[in-house]
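Marked as duplicate of an earlier ticket. Keeping the data here for the record.
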Amino acid sequence: MLAAVALALLLAGCSAGSAAETAAPATTTSSSTTSTSTSTSTSTSTTSTTIAPAAEEAGPAGLGQGDSGPEVLALEQRLDALHYDVGDIDGTFDKVTMYAVMAFQKVHGFGRDGLATDAIVAAMASDPGTHAALAPQGGPNRVEVDLGRQVLFLYQGGTLSRIVPVSTGSEERFCSEGYCRYAVTPRGAYSVYRVASGWETGPLGDLYNPLYFNGGIAFHGAYSVPGYPASHGCVRIPMNAAEWFPTVVGNGWPVFVSNGVGDEIVPPQPEAPPEPVGPMPTITLPSALPPRRAGHARARNG
């Protein structure tokens, strides 16, 4: 009996710890004996067998918040190598790790639950880590926001530095300060013009370490950064990213907001200087003016 239990637990593999995945062993056997009242006793045995549900019915195995150990450490190391923000690489699957997994899921079109299933881990292993730039002409230092995939790409020195999950405008109608509009994060080319430290409170809520780049629209830390657009127009980033983001990105940094690959944003070009004017014709004056005629003098004085 104990051997059967141990075997079933071993076959269950690595899981997120759900009760369904650690159910009863695959087979249980029970025996019962009955006796007749005659002088000759006859014993019969009956056996009942319970088959565990198929593995896929119990849900995908994977790593999630609260897990720890070498598997999580390897996961964090791989995410970091692929430029996702995992925070401390310490073998603990915390909220920062969850956001990094979610960012990977967003980039590659997986479900956005932040759970590192076997399929996600396998995709990470085969990911070459290359990404098509949304604004390849945007300069060596820039921020690209992909509205479709809900991530931002941070470039430093012409190289991709970090990929961070975001939540942008929900495109839902809302009313504030006496008028109504839609929650939109407009696409286009902008630049950061003001960086604030700490919490700022606006008419639509609190913003942590905001970096404004388009009127009242800013990157800012938020406690809630879901896998879908949910803001009033700002670009929400996780709180851990909001701690280091303003130390890298500053005033004047280009920001490109795009609908995704294929929607390249071209940075505004500086106005061309006016075309040079050709040399002015040279006018040569005579060295001495001719004397006035007397008739002309009388006419002026008349």
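See parent ticket for discussion. The longest strand covers residues 205-214.
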